[in-house]
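FORM 7B: Structural annotation worksheet

SECTION A. Query
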Amino acid sequence: MRRYAFAIVGSAFLSLLLFPWPLTALLALLAAPLLPFVPLTLGLVADALYWAPGVFPLATLLGALTTATAFFVRSRLATGIM
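SECTION B. Predicted structure
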């Protein structure tokens, strides 16, 4: 499963540029259990790419919440499952 994580991360970054945001969010959620910082990174990149003056950085906030949730879930699961 670990080898597929990099394919999911690469797909998420490409979908940030090429596809609508729900696909990017889905790929970030799929990558979060294996690499927890992916949603935060995608949120930062999305806000940097599509930033407009006076707009709240919502993608970064949602990425941070998803990252915190991924770390919480990882800490609760047994190490043998992952």
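SECTION C. Observations
Residues 2-76 form one domain. The longest helix spans residues 58-76.

SECTION D. Sign-off
Analyst initials: ____
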